[in-house]
Write the structure tokens for this entry.
Amino acid sequence: MRATVWAGRNSVEVQSVSDPKILNDRDAIVRVTSTAICGSDLHIYDGYIPTVKHGDILGHEFMGEVVEVGKAVGNLAVGDRVVVPFPISCGACSACDRDLYSLCENSNPNAGIAEKLMGHSPAGLFGYSHMLGGFAGGQAEYARVPFADIGPLKIEDDLTDDQALFLSDILPTGYMGAEMCGITPEDVVAVWGAGPVGLFAAVSARLLGASQVIVIDRVPYRLELAERLGATPLNFADTSVLGELQEMTAGRGPDHCIDAVGMEARNGSTVVDVYDRVKQAVRMETERPHALREAAMSCRNGGTISIVGVYGGMMDKFPIGAVMNRSLTIKAGQCHVQRYMRPLLQRIRNGEIDPTAIISHHLPLDQAPQGYEIFKHKRDNCTKVVLNP
């Protein structure tokens, strides 16, 4: 089969690789019909995620048709159309029992590697390093899905792939980012990042009752899309974010701040931004946490910081004093996708959310390298690239 593989920093290739096979009775094989390039894939592309190896198949947002099932998979049949959540979860451990699917205790066969960096291991993930299981990803013609009796969600034929695909990751991730804020009526929510997750977080915050949602970015066409989706755009290249947010909230700051940027945030005009870029480049720091620092300094006293942008390790110069002295609450996590798939599918059916609004490009799988470059450099007004094997 053909698949997108990591070929080194800033390089992916579409190569012929071996077809996946059933390895466990709870496996399924899915013929991929749609897959997408995620912002967190760019962290791998840029070389900032450890334990990625040459030839690893990338991608964790995918859906398709079941073509084979293991003997223990009773809920799926050949021919079923499914969307696959990016965390791989057993459904039976203590974490899964509490709906904390991205913390599954049984799905990462390389848990010992993750424990050295994080203390404890999260779940295994598709296409996201050997530290997180070394599982082949979904930017391919076929994919093996472990624990297929727990993860995949069947999709009826009345929905298109474009409507359902993002249930695999970015729609639930944005929604969880808003949900973790505990939004009440009249709350003001600020979202750092007008990429796909930030846009879905903004839409979700409005659905959950926020009176105003402010989206912070510097890319004009993305801010225009945020405004069309009901948010107030704020271009950090044109103004002081802290000062502007105070002005917009009568000096209090937003009630909730969502970091949908993660480890490659940049400002471009401050000494600390240069500091972060140099330290990250020489691997003395794994993060560029500019957005997270700004969120901590902007949030109102007693407010909430919600982190759904991906971080990988250690950061410098985080204002923990502001967090402690001003009673800020930090909530974070890889999304527990399985918890949100069915209710969000219903919101799509009800017309409350239109996932297709963020798609800018459809490309064949063989053009994945071009897709990565377009997405990374925001060319051709790119917001989201969907690949069709």
Summary: The domain at 171-332 is CATH 3.40.50.720 (Rossmann fold). Residues 279 and 372 are 24 Å apart (CA to CA). The chain has 13 helices and 17 strands. The longest helix spans residues 337-349.
